Amino acid sequence: MHATLLGILGLALLGALHAQDGVPVQTDFQQDKLTGRWYSIGLASNSNWFKEKKHLMKMCTTVISATADGNLEVTSTYPKGDQCEKRNSLYTKTEQPGRFSYTSPRWGSKHDIRVVETNYEEYALVATQISKSTGSSTMVLLYSRTKELSPERLERFTQFSREQGLTDEEILILPQTGERLEGRG
């Protein structure tokens, strides 16, 4: 019985690791083309904070810039009540182009971030596996250079999120916000 349980747990762990490794990264990723302003159009996650805050979420702006050592500085400005709040994150490059790591100083969570696909001028699909002491979660972001994307891109985001094991209740197309987020926040 004990050996069977260990075998099942081992297979489950192997499956989880394989699923994470199965997340593709953009072929011939060109980091310099990813920099600039993006809008968060879609967000999908199976984390508890997402389930609790989903009804409050709105589109935000994100500015991605390269650091001197080749990492990415990611600054997101999002509405919180009647104010704008900024959050800065440093995505550290890995040996695989298009894949980054980030550790949250606030929560201690470790993030495995992958640029799954992008054409750099219109949209970017980004998948993140988040690990912390209480467990792991998956997050998928859809970025756009403009506040609107074609139905085909929105459907691709939804489809990819489902492929990552997320349910329709965990997938959100973010409502647009006012012009105050255009960098004046």
From TrEMBL:
EC supergroup of this enzyme: isomerase
The keyword Secreted is assigned to this record: yes
Molecular function in Gene Ontology: prostaglandin-D synthase activity; small molecule binding
Stored CDD domains: lipocalin_L-PGDS
SUPFAM superfamilies: Lipocalins
E.C. number: 5.3.99.2
Top-level division of the source organism's lineage: Eukaryota
Transport as UniProt keyword: yes
Record localization: Cytoplasm, Perinuclear region; Golgi apparatus; Nucleus membrane; Rough endoplasmic reticulum
Keywords, in A-Z order: Cytoplasm, Disulfide bond, Endoplasmic reticulum, Fatty acid biosynthesis, Fatty acid metabolism, Glycoprotein, Golgi apparatus, Isomerase, Lipid biosynthesis, Lipid metabolism, Mast cell degranulation, Membrane, Nucleus, Prostaglandin biosynthesis, Prostaglandin metabolism, Secreted, Signal, Transport
Subunit and interaction comment: Monomer.
Protein name: Prostaglandin-H2 D-isomerase
Organism the protein comes from: Pluvianellus socialis (Magellanic plover)
Source lineage: Eukaryota, Metazoa, Chordata, Craniata, Vertebrata
Gene expressing this chain: Lipo
